[in-house]
Amino acid sequence: MDVMGDKATLFETGRFVQPSGPEQAEAGEEAAEQAAEQAAEELRQRLAAEAGDVEAMSVLGAMLLRRGDLDGAEPQLRAATAAGDRAAANNLGVLLHQRGYADEAAGWWRIAAVAGSAAAAHALGRHHRERGDEPAAEYWLRQSAEQGHALGAYALADLLEHRGDAGAAEWMRAAAERGHREAAYRLARALDRKAVSEGEGGSDNGVELLAQAEQFYRQAAARGHRRAALHLGAILEKRGELKEAGRWYLTSAKDGEARAACALGFLLRDAGDTESAAVWWLRAAQDGDGNAANALGALHAERGETQTAERWYRAAMDAGDDNGAYNLGLLCAEQGRTAPAEQWYRRAAYAGHREAANALAILLLQGGDATGAEPWFSKAAEAGSVDAAFNLGILFAGRGEDGVALRWYERAAAAGHTEAALQVGIARLRDGDEGAAERHLRCAAGGGSAEGAYRLATVLDARRPPEPAHELGETVHEKTECEEWYERAASLGHRRAQVRVGMMAAARGDVVEAARWYREAAEAGSRNGAFNLGLLLAREGSEPEAAVWWTRAADAGHGRAALRLALVYARRGELAEGQRWADRAVSLGPAEVSERAARLRDALREELSA
N or C: which end of the chain has fewer CB atoms below 10 A? Predict the structure, then answer.
């Protein structure tokens, strides 16, 4: 309840950090000076009150009430009230309310409110609301609010909001603009939620609403509202203003907001200060923040401290965070403890954790239980797990149900899943829908898929027009988009793309570049890369080294490489070895190579038998 006084008001209580050292001494001196001044002021007011000064009686009563001296305050306030002082009537109501005489307090508040006291009208409105008399509560709270009383405006807004009255927002804003921090916070939250809703609906109004929300968060946070400081920090962090976000998180965390301490920990971790992050996570976890407990668990798991990690994951679970059970499942799975992993995944999945449902399905699938895995994949996918949708595609494709598989791949691809986009692109290529295939392959390639980049390049390559010729008949080469995608795939380690880039470099006459790509593909296991590298080396006069790469290619099943080796050994006069490689080339093919190799083999056999 409010305490009024024309010259004195009650101060809000708060928590203060006690300074130490010289600062503590200075603070002690200041406190002593303030106490002396207050004592002197109280003495002056007491002398004036004893001389019959009504205003002094009211002020002295307020001072004693503020100090908790109810017995000393009551006679002063009653005397001032009897003399018609409305502030004293309000404060007498406060005093009686503190003593437990609520009805008598309401009588004095009514006297003060009728006399024009906004604070008394607010107190009276609160009194009626506590007793369930909402019409009377609204009447007196409106009287207070219309006189510009911030507490009255806030209480009226709260009452109207409880009833679902549209006028609540107007009074909440009025209270916020008059400096009421809780009103500012609640108004900011309402604007924040509306901004999110508008943004999801595609409206441009969301940005303006968020700016207003930030303004009121700032107002409330500046007045010490710790949750407002938390939300302000979140807005600033999302915007990339990490330094200021950290300051507000720190302010909120120091005031005891566990979520702010947790957020500050993540900010510090991202900045590379893991040790400081752990300190704030510990503080938040000890205050019951499950997210912080999970973060601590992950930190200890990374350090190999599995027992400590498990303890924190359990703490997160006890705090109601389903991620705790999921992370326990991951921890057990990494240790090869399949049974407890399944148990924890199930616990999290039954609680609605979609990634746990997906992980459980994978575990069941790996154990050969495809029937048991499918409903969990479906549950996770329906809850929004993109990975689960992709996995369902794999599951149905494995059963030969390509149509169903494609639908799940398309769902995952629409949510940005790179590999799913690749599968949809491949399916559309099979169906002959090159336009749809190209769109999905571009998504896959843009998401970092080497196979997606390669297949996109082949699509573009197939419809590439012949290269323009120079006026003198010389070919003019300009790098095309398909070459860029071949190079992207090659740089990501795609062996066929590396061979193709090597071929394009060789066509340009860039032997060094061609050899580099052929060698990279060959060393990664590409038989075509090894064969082409051999051709390049042979043309450059390095036939012995070429034979080494042809041998590697032929051993991997490359028929042309085997035929080349047969010719090399035949020229060297090593007829038996040449015949052996010719036999290998006949078996490997293709048909043209088999025919040539058969003729060479027969000739070598005749030579050997001559």
Answer: C
